[in-house]
Amino acid sequence: MKRYIFFTIILSLSLLTFSCKKVEAPAACGPVPTENQMRWQEMEYYAFLHFSLNTYTDQSWGFGNEDVALFNPTELDARQWARICKEAGMKGIIVTAKHHCGFCLWPSAYTEYSVKNALWEDGKGDVIRELADACKEYGLKLGIYLSPWDRNHVDYGKPEYITYFRNQLTELLTNYGDIFEVWYDGANGGTGWYGGANENRKIDRATYYDWKNTYKLVRELQPNIVIWNDGGDRADLRWVGTEGGWVGETNWSLLNATGDVPFEMLHYGVENGDSWVPGEVNTSIRPEWFYHPGEDTKVKTLPQLMDTYYNSIGRNATFLLNFPIMPNGLIHPNDEKAALDLAAAVKEAFAENLVKNTKTEASNFRGRSKKFGPANVIDDEKDSYWATDDEVKTASLTIDFGKPTTFNRFMAQEYIRLGQRVKAFTIEAQVDGNWQEIAKATTIGYKRILRFPTVMATQLRFSITDSKACPLISNIGVYNAPQILTQPTIIRNQAGEISIIPADAESEIYYTLDGSEATNASIKYTDPVKTEGKVKISAISVEPATGKRSQATTEEFGLPRKNWKIIGIEDERVYQIIDGNLATGWRHSDGTKLPADLVIDLGEELNLSGFKYYPEQNSWQPGTITHYEFYISTDGKNWKKVSEGEFSNIKNNPLWQTKNFEPVTARYFKLRALKNTENNTRIGYAEVDVITNRIK
What we know:
Radius of gyration: 29 Å
CATH architecture of the largest domain: Alpha-Beta Barrel
CATH class of the largest domain: Alpha Beta
Distance between the termini: 118 Å
Structural class: alpha+beta
Strand content: 25-35%
Mean pLDDT: 93
Strand order of the largest sheet: 1-2-3-4-7-8-11-12
Low-confidence stretches: 6-20
Number of strands: 34
Number of helices: 9
Number of domains: 4
């Protein structure tokens, strides 16, 4: 008996010792974010505001010689900007304090090219001050965009300019309170006014700005700031290689500290990179960054904005959405509505996290300690997490809903303070007692959201199938988001035949041809529609069972191109550039010397007032035109130049480029390509069109 008691005591003490043994947290895996980067990541969503002199010239980029007197926003209201951003769910605003034209939205002491010489407020105004005060009122953080390239300044390209640039940077970072982010555009060097020199100036962007010391100055002035640069210079944040509104499905928050950063690295990160450099997805709510009246009907739709949300925040990045400020100094009502609709849709989609009050089990958790147990993923706490033992790099976690539950969204977050780890995972649902895979993905990072067809299940299993080290999962969310109907796509071929393509096979399409917006009572689309002259068409998708409708797609088409002939090119595939399909295209043969001409016979004399160019959508072998000349002729022999210039920012924003000119009569036109984005001889086109009126 005594022996039994003795062994019982020993066993109890042993168990007590084991149970009291402290289970240590995992060691960090690779680079980890700074506190500044964490604060920024947790913001998730914030605004860009583009406003400058080129707002008044209908240009994408100002040249640097625009008249300061043009800047006169008679209704400017920074409180309207802040209110809209706050109501849209944004956490901050980044403003273009100085864009490439060199014009300053604050009264800089170092240049006359600023608001102090504008008509607005009799030269006593300060846009940055008004915005800083508005942000403070609405509880938003303020960020500053300061273009390194200055097409106005006489010293750009010389060492003296760096002093000027840093002086302006110092003004912005000391006079307007806390700044959460400073943004440096990647466009650097090229043609400009440069104090009247009107020339092309090139710089070595890797060395010219002495970024190391510029960054040092920034951090001294604003210790809590994050620095954005376009990837070539290792700042705190990186560009994702496109302005289209998405980052790679695989997205590591890592880069290497040195070396080139091609598109693949920007877009996907580097799995074993030695620096923490997360991605920021920047895109505009319209096709262009600055305001253009012709884009008032081209504001991104709710489905498009939701796609961007899922492809940015939902892929381990942040979402920076741009509002172009109108000449009167306000955000356009269409832009406001789109942003608020997005906020409402996001709120509705994630209104109820279905994991609350569920049971969780894990195949492994660290030291069998509750501190690292599976229940941590449903406690909605950012600093608790489920972790496995060090040697366990694959594991599963099961959520038991207790009853059949409908869902179509899954969210997961890693505890990134200790590094990004997960390389691949799957989601399974238990339906009628059987497990079935419903989704799989690669990286997680700060936040990953997956969309999949609606399923009803009693249990969900989250399985990490590959990880760099023991996985750490902070939070999981399961949601049932309502369907958002996607609007249809409208195209017109060379013969003038209009096709309307639904986003899904179940939807019905209704349309109008008279300029009015389509409704459920409009013409039902069954077959392609033959058209003649100019057409403005509106179309919607409708869910037959409920009558629920999508937002309308609106397209305007000029005169049909059925009589057009392309001159001097024998390749029949060239006609893909006038087939109405943006996904097809053609390019000149390799070895073509620049300038390269595209000559088209319109088949009759027409009144022309502009042309349109849509670049070939080939990211691997781009042939995108940046500089052009446009000629017209009545006989195909004698030519008159009616337009020349550049397609600003087309490399990062490869959308329709429209150039207007004074009306002229012509039967032939010639688009001459002078230069492309890659400084080589590849020249391509997806679509070419002209703005026309038939001569009566």
